[in-house]
Structures are given as structure tokens and as C-alpha cells.
Specification:
By secondary structure, the chain is an alpha/beta fold. α4 links the parallel β6 and β7. About 5% of the residues have low confidence.
Length: 546
């Protein structure tokens, strides 16, 4: 699977290099290309971004009887858009500060991948080219300069980007890609992330399972490179701690209902109560909805950090299945001032944001008029700026859980502190050849990468931020419990933590009394749902064959 990503990256680099040798004169042929929309603000130095804002795209069968059209995106979700807003919020904070990057204004430019490797790579190439038209082989001599790129959101989108970014020596910081594969600095030398990789997560999950004496369980993983590799690593960790994985089933957002029913049938053939899910949330959506229609409600789900709770993505039936779920999320603290920032979002102040009108329409259930359109005006609610977000802020933006949004915020600060250190260099004492320093007016990406790798700063929350030799942030997780009310509203309640720096027996803490299970009970789950099977005495291999 990963070979496919490698092949894609190699092809892109060859394309990049080939086009650098041609096209220097007008009249030579050019690659067909489409303009890809982005949201941006001006600055002396910009930070690029490639994020998932829409959860999918419309796939078209290509007959090649006419010119292929670009992918069109669908499924706008506020939860994903929140990560982009956090990037803008951080940049505004930094520009208003006097102690960080004085006399330098940061800007940003962000592209939406729509959960597509194709669009993720196009967005990256557009940023590397310096304009909205991806031009492999060229960095257009335009101002401002780009310090690096934040993204992608998911590991399977991040890997092909990271291969090319590594070859080009451009720093890339992901705020949520957790695959341990990305910790390989031989393959991804310029990749960093503000979240921990899967290695510590697997340990945390194995200890959480042991905390409740859950040893006989199943797994559902995404049918992607990162899902398959991460799932296998997690299985080995669980079995290394005495657990047994009875089955490992794959899911994907492109799976049909028939394929999902096959997965459910396989799950029901085993006497397993606890199921681990290692998958991005979009791939699990149809599974959860189908579990409800099939009346399969006797399972407890435990989600890895790969899965982000996204309220708008799931319907009420799916949330009923998720009720009582436990999950891991990278440790998150509050973002002082972020809620105030969100309160002031308005169409009149967000004209340059290509995503904002979709956001406003989603929140208020309205439609923006197009031109002189009069059709359906009597039945459709039109959008306007005569309303305010106000009381909608907390439920719409899910402010009780800022997982990954906070880490997008941290990624911006990492770039800012790296640039600040770069500017503070004393000529003759610099880290580069013969003690030279980098020039903020002519920065090279590999110079920024040097400072990022040696970065150590304290976030506004007081948290120590740095990257280890694998480019990973310090590992720390919150343990969350999904609690769904009768009216279908959900909240994520922090019920524990995992800190690998603590003594082994103190690394994981769980407040079991704060957990509400799927039946609404707070009774210790292991004590009343656990089944004693005679065949548990057999080896795990024998169990899997049973």
C-alpha cells in the first residue's frame, strides 16, 4: 500500500524536474491545470496550509470523450473548518504581539483537499509554486515568501505530500496526522507534527483496555495505508499486553452498503463486546448508521486518536451507537481568546474567505442568493448578515473539545518561534556555513527547518512545545467519554489521562465513576458486561481460528 504512495511521490518529482527543463520559452506546451480556490491573508512571510474542509468529493467516471473536469467537493463540516480558523486566529495573535516577530507580518494561504490525495497534492504544488496555478518545477519569484506548510489533516493525505516536501527540503507540520510511519526521518526528513505518533497511543490504549480487564475484543480499521499499518501495530501492542484480537475488519467511505453489511455480519459471528476503531471518522460513518438499522447496539466502542468526533458528520442514529464510547485524543488545553474571535465572525468581515459563505449557510440553514435568482425565494430562507452567531458558538464549534484545532494553532506558533529565532541570529555566530545567518528577506526552507528541529518554547497555555528526533511532539493523551442525551445532543467528557513520562503504574489515570456507558449506567463496565469463555484459556491464535 505504501508503495503506491511512494510511486505517486516519485512520479510527481519526475514531473516537477521534467517541467523545469521545458516551458522556459513561450509557445511550448503546458500541462492542463485548473485553478484551485484558497483562502489567504497578506503578510511579509506566509505560512501555507492544506486542510480537509469538505469531507469528500464527487467522483466522476472518466470516458475521455471530453476534457475531464476538476473534482467538485461536498460535505462541508464546521469541525474541519475550525482548524483553518484556528490558524487564522493564531496568525492574528502573533501579528498583534510585540514579543514575537516584531516588524514582521505573517500571512497565510490555505487549500482544501476535500479528502482527496489529488487535491492535497495540487494544493501543495500551488503553494510550492507560489501561485494558485500548480507549476511543477517552478517557484515563481513573487513576494511574500513561504516559511512552510501546515497539513494535512489525515495520515493517508499527509504521506504523499511529505514525500515531496522532504525531497524539496520544505518544512511541513501536521496538526493531526498520527501514523507512526511518518516518524521515519529517512523517508520524511522535513516532516514534523504537533501531535504524538501512534507509538505512545498504542501503549495508552493497551493500558486502558487492561484497566477494565478487556482482553477479548475486535478491531475495525480504515482500508488505507495508515489504517492497515497502524491497525497491525496496535494489534501487536494489545496482544503484547495479554489481549486477544478476534478479528480485524476494514471499512472505507467508498464501501457500499452491501460491503458494510458483510463487515457487520463478520462482527456478529464473534462473542465480542468491545471493539477498537482505528479509522478516520468519515470511513466509519456508514458502518455506524447501518449498525443502528440492524439493531446492533450491544457493543462498546473504543476509538483511537485517528478518529475525531464530528457532530455534523453523524446523524442521531449514529450517535446512539456512539453513546458510551471511550476514545483517545491528544492532550488539549484552552485557547484563550478563541471564543471571542469566533463571536466576531461575520460575512462583512470575511469576504476573502472562500469557505465562509458555506459555513454561514450551514449554521443558519439558509441559501445565499446568486445574481438575480428569484426561483424558490418563497420557500427557501435567504442568508443575510442580520443575524449573529452568539449562542450558537459553543454547539456549532464544539468548544468542549478543541482536539486538533489546538494543534493547528500550535503549528503556527512553531513556525513563528522558528522565524523569530532565525531573525535573532548574530552574524558570525550563526548555525550555517562559516557562522552565517539566514536572511528573513530571503529565507530558504531548509533554514527554517533547522530552527524548527531545534525549537523549544512555552505556549501561551504554559505547555512546553518541542519536536523530538522523530519530529513528534511530546506525547500526552486525554481519555474522553461520549455522552449522548435523550434529545440527541452529545458531549465529550474528559474521564482520564495518559502521560508516558510518569512512572509506569501512574501513566494512566481513569475516573471510572465519571463514565456513562451506552445503557446510561456508570457502573464499572468490566464487572457487569464481561463474559467468561472457557476458550479464553487457549492461545490468542487458537481464539482467532475458533
Amino acid at each position: 500500500m505504501f508503495a503506491a504512495s511512494l510511486g505517486l511521490a516519485v512520479s510527481l518529482v519526475l514531473l516537477w524536474l521534467t517541467s523545469a527543463m521545458v516551458g522556459t520559452r513561450q509557445g511550448l506546451c503546458r500541462l492542463p491545470r485548473w485553478r484551485q480556490e484558497s483562502v489567504s491573508t497578506e503578510g511579509d512571510v506566509i505560512i501555507g496550509g492544506v486542510f480537509v474542509v469538505h469531507s469528500g468529493y464527487v467522483y466522476r467516471e472518466l470516458a475521455f470523450e471530453e476534457e475531464p473536469k476538476p473534482l467538485s467537493c461536498e460535505g462541508f463540516y464546521v469541525r474541519y473548518y475550525r482548524d483553518v480558523l484556528a490558524m487564522g486566529f493564531a496568525i492574528r495573535e502573533i501579528n498583534q504581539a510585540t514579543d514575537l516577530l516584531p516588524n514582521i507580518t505573517l500571512g497565510f494561504q490555505v487549500y482544501d483537499s476535500c479528502m482527496s490525495e489529488d487535491r492535497a497534492i495540487k494544493g501543495m504544488l500551488a503553494l510550492l509554486s507560489g501561485n494558485q496555478w500548480p507549476s511543477p518545477g517552478y517557484r515563481c519569484p513573487t513576494h511574500p515568501q513561504m516559511a512552510g506548510i501546515i497539513g494535512e489533516t489525515f495520515s493517508f493525505l499527509t504521506v504523499p505530500m511529505a514525500r515531496v516536501m522532504g525531497i524539496m527540503h520544505y518544512p511541513q507540520i501536521s496538526h493531526s496526522a498520527v501514523s507512526s510511519f511518518l516518524s521515519d526521518k529517512y523517508q520524511f526528513p522535513s516532516f514534523l507534527r504537533t501531535v504524538p505518533g501512534n507509538t505512545f497511543q498504542n501503549t495508552a490504549l493497551a493500558q486502558l483496555l487492561a484497566r477494565f480487564s478487556w482482553t477479548w475484543l475486535g478491531m475495525v480499521i480504515s482500508d488505507t495505508d495508515s489504517g492497515l499499518q497502524g491497525g497491525e501495530e496496535l494489534r501487536m501492542e494489545i496482544e503484547g499486553h495479554g489481549g486477544c484480537v478476534a478479528f480485524m475488519e476494514k471499512v472505507h467511505q467508498r464501501y457500499t452498503t452491501e460491503e458494510v453489511l458483510r463487515v457487520i455480519a463478520k462482527i456478529q459471528t464473534y462473542s465480542v463486546t468491545v471493539i477498537i476503531v482505528h479509522s478516520a471518522e468519515v470511513h466509519v460513518k456508514l458502518l455506524l448508521e447501518t449498525l443502528y438499522t440492524q439493531n446492533v447496539a450491544d457493543k462498546v466502542w473504543v476509538f483511537t486518536a485517528y478518529f475525531a468526533m464530528t457532530s455534523g458528520l453523524f446523524d442521531k442514529q449514529a450517535w446512539k451507537i456512539l453513546n458510551g464510547t471511550l476514545g483517545l485524543a491528544p492532550h488539549t488545553t484552552s485557547m484563550h481568546g478563541f471564543e471571542h474571535f469566533l463571536h466576531h465572525l461575520h460575512p462583512t468581515t470575511s469576504r476573502e474567505d472562500v469557505f465562509f459563505n458555506q459555513f454561514w449557510a450551514k449554521v443558519f440553514g439558509c441559501k445565499w442568493p446568486v445574481g438575480n435568482e428569484t426561483e424558490n425565494l418563497a420557500t427557501e430562507r435567504l442568508c443575510s448578515g442580520n443575524v449573529a452567531l452568539d449562542e450558537k458558538i459553543t454547539p456549532v464549534f464544539e468548544l468542549n473539545d478543541l482536539s486538533y484545532t489546538y494543534h493547528s494553532y500550535l503549528a503556527v506558533y512553531a513556525f513563528a518561534h522558528a522565524l523569530n529565532t532565525l531573525m535573532s541570529c548574530t552574524p558570525g555566530q550563526g548555525p550555517f556555513t562559516e557562522g552565517t545567518c539566514a536572511d528573513i528577506n530571503d529565507i530558504r526552507p531548509w533554514q527554517v527547518l533547522h530552527y524548527l528541529k531545534n525549537l523549544h518554547f512555552k505556549a501561551r497555555s504554559g505547555e512546553e512545545i518541542f519536536f523530538d528526533e522523530r519530529g513528534d511532539a511530546p506525547a500526552s493523551y486525554d481519555i474522553l467519554n461520549v455522552q449522548v442525551s435523550e434529545d440527541g445532543l452529545f458531549q465529550l467528557v474528559k474521564v482520564g489521562t495518559f502521560d508516558p513520562s510518569a512512572p509506569e503504574k501512574q501513566a494512566i489515570t481513569v475516573n471510572a465513576s465519571a463514565i456513562l456507558w451506552g445503557d446510561g449506567s456508570s457502573q464499572h463496565f468490566g464487572s457487569f458486561f464481561w463474559e467468561s469463555y472457557a476458550f479464553q484459556a487457549l492461545s490468542c491464535i487458537a481464539l482467532q481460528k475458533y
